[in-house]
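Annual report, structural modelling task.

Input specification for the 2-acetamido-2-deoxy-beta-D-glucopyranose complex:
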Amino acid sequence: MKFISIITLCAITSAHEITQLKVPLYADPRRPAVLSCHFQMDDQKLHSVKWYRDMDEIFRYNPSQKPPIRLFNVTGIMVQGGECQIDSCMVKVMPPPVATRAAYTCEVSTEGPKFQIARQTKHMTVVAMPDLDPIISGAPKVLKPGEQIFLNCSSDYSLPPSDINWYIDNELQKPEAWQRTELSAVQPGGLRKSWRVLRLRVPATVSGALRIRCESILLVEPPVVRDTATIITVHSQTQLSKYVSNNRGIKLTANTILLIAVTWTLIEISTFMSL
Ligand SMILES: *[C@@H]1O[C@H](CO)[C@@H](O)[C@H](O)[C@H]1NC(C)=O
Ligand SMILES: *[C@@H]1O[C@H](CO)[C@@H](O)[C@H](O)[C@H]1NC(C)=O
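The model returned the following structure:
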């Protein structure tokens, strides 16, 4: 079952070839992945088609044997099925519930006496993308200067679990020693939520709006970033009452102006009518 034919890697080019190797770049650990190998034999006779995961053989098609297809379970993967047509073979594998990257190789060899080999490899990474943006909890609408609160940001389930970054007004907040990213229990497929707490201390001199943003990052290539933001207004009680009364004052003035305008228009109209 091991990859013993390494020496034949340097085999002379043969007339037959692999025309297409379909291996998904990412595999979701919750569903099987389908891999297919398409080949062209020209005038050669097919001896066998083999699939390898890294160095382990997981599939063998040998049309002259009974049964022609044999599947091999290897550590870290479950081979669920395989099927061949005249010019292709597909294999269905259930990815392991861990974030791994493995090489999948298809090997097509011709009948003797030459036993020529065509081979192609592609990599597949087991990843479950988050479906949702992260969620910030514990954020009030208004805070007073000098107040301190704790915010919690939790990501959606993913594999591998996401990293969490906090920003205040676009400035990255370095985690305090106790503020590590924590992980939830494992879901089917190895998915986990992650969450991290931010201690927000409002300086006594600050007032205005704070933009709090939380980012969940899945460290795959390229990274998958999702984020969510919330605005917290900072002002003291005295500022608040000033703000409210100012607002009312403006409204009153506007109403007065409107009243004057309407009265003036009515006077104008009646003057015009009586002409
Ligand atoms: C692989 O393992 C699964 C689960 O243990 C089993 O259902 C399946 O029949 C095995 N396949 C082979 C080819 O041994
Ligand atoms: C933060 O949110 C997560 C997920 O909703 C939860 O499991 C966790 O207990 C929360 N942590 C704190 C300190 O509130």
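The chain has two domains: 2-126, 135-237.
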